[in-house]
Write a structure and sequence with these properties.
By secondary structure, the chain is an alpha/beta fold. Strands 2-3-1-4-5-6-7 form a 7-stranded mixed beta sheet, sandwiched between helices. Strand 2 (72-79) and strand 3 (88-95) form a beta hairpin. Mean pLDDT is 81; it is low at 1-7, 24-36 and 155-169. Helix content is 43%, strand content 12%. The longest helix is centred in the last third of the chain and has 31 residues, at 333-363.
């Protein structure tokens, strides 16, 4: 057997990496498209402490206690399709801090992976007052980055056209040709799964409040051509159904047939299976829709929802979280102790300096 030199191996590896980064090459010239490698990227976003890590670990069958997410974390999952075949790989990113660290979306969403990207938005059903603001901010930031990554110039005509065509064909892929809402929705540019977490707490809410939340999330999901599911880490059945939807995104498994739109039960609505006629109008009992002056249907649902669940004033909280040193989830006892000591020394120095300046002023 002829010996392969190390130089040759390095050259092959270098050419492979360059081919993937440039998006060039196909089967004919030995290049490999990331999608053909059965690699996908799933990006988890949502409320702080909303259950993202717990859901992710359960979907990966990892029996370990969840820990607070440090800004942006990465892990991966692998799944075998059969004997003697390459395993499917899911690159999994999780954004911590709720909306406060949303600028970090530029790291997991790139021109290289946007064609195989999916997004999972986890909304804490037990905190409805923060629901719309979290959803709106995170989806806007994520959409902007996806569109930016999709618009970056590609090295080949095929890859450039493919990336652009993907965004244009999203509504065609999700909704049947005869669906009455095809022209009325605004599909998210990549597959989107919305998970309502902590259903065990939510089910004890007042029935009218549950109705408002359920109908609103049904509208949001349908408007963005997303799948919707309510889940709870305390229910094996719900977690199993959540895992099924996750594996569709992460490993390309076949779509399940579970469907439940009964407002008295956990919602499970795959993308494209709902309609505006089935959802109905916004539930307004104490407000006249005509007085809300909404700019579009999405704005109307927002205004109605915020009448029932006024948004929280989180500006001060977000400003504090901009400095991770003040966030308790990033605490490091030894470092924090040393920092406190240095802060004390700095305060003492400032006081001494202030006295010195005052003394100088008195002497003059």
């Amino acid at each position: 057997m002829p010996k392969i030199s190390s130089d040759t191996l390095w050259e092959l590896a270098s050419a492979e990496v360059q081919s993937r980064e440039d998006g060039t090459g196909g089967e004919e010239d030995g290049g490999v498209d990331p999608v053909s490698l059965n690699e996908r990227t799933v990006f988890f976003i949502g409320n702080k402490a909303g259950g993202k890590t717990t859901i992710l670990l359960r979907c990966l069958d990892r029996d370990e206690p969840p820990k607070p997410t440090l800004a942006l974390e990465y892990t991966f999952g692998r799944r075998a399709r059969g004997h003697n075949t390459p395993k499917d790989i899911a690159h999994l990113w999780e954004l911590g801090g709720g909306t406060s660290l949303s600028d970090l979306v530029q790291i997991p969403i790139t021109a290289q992976n946007v064609r195989s990207l999916s997004v999972v938005l986890v909304l804490d059903l037990s905190k409805p007052n923060a629901l719309w603001g979290t959803m709106e901010r995170l989806l806007q930031t994520t959409r902007t980055q996806v569109e930016k990554a999709s618009s970056k110039p590609q090295r080949t005509v095929e890859s450039k056209a493919g990336s652009k065509q993907q965004a244009q064909n999203r509504p065609l892929m999700v909704l049947p040709k005869d669906h009455p809402d095809r022209e009325l929705i605004n599909p998210f540019p990549v597959p989107l799964l919305i998970i309502g977490s902590k259903f065990d707490i939510f089910q004890d809410f007042d029935s009218e409040k549950r109705k408002v939340i359920c109908k609103t999330l049904r509208f949001i999901s349908h408007y963005y051509a997303a799948s919707l599911i309510f889940t709870s880490s305390k229910s094996e059945s719900l977690m199993s159904k959540t895992k099924s939807l996750f594996t569709q995104l992460g490993f390309g498994t076949e779509k399940g047939k579970s469907m439940s739109s009964d407002l008295s039960k956990p919602l499970i609505i795959p993308a494209g299976m709902d309609s505006l006629s089935q959802i109905g109008s916004p539930p307004t009992t104490d407000v006249d829709i005509g007085t809300l002056h909404a700019k579009n249907p999405l704005d109307l649902w927002k205004k109605v929802f915020e009448v029932v669940f006024p948004p929280e004033n989180t500006s001060d909280h977000h400003r504090e979280l901009k400095d991770p040193a003040k966030d308790p989830q990033y605490s490091e006892p030894q470092i924090d102790s040393m920092r406190a000591q240095k802060d004390t020394e700095l305060d003492q120095y400032k006081r001494n300096a202030s006295k010195s300046w005052k003394g100088l002023e008195l002497e003059t």
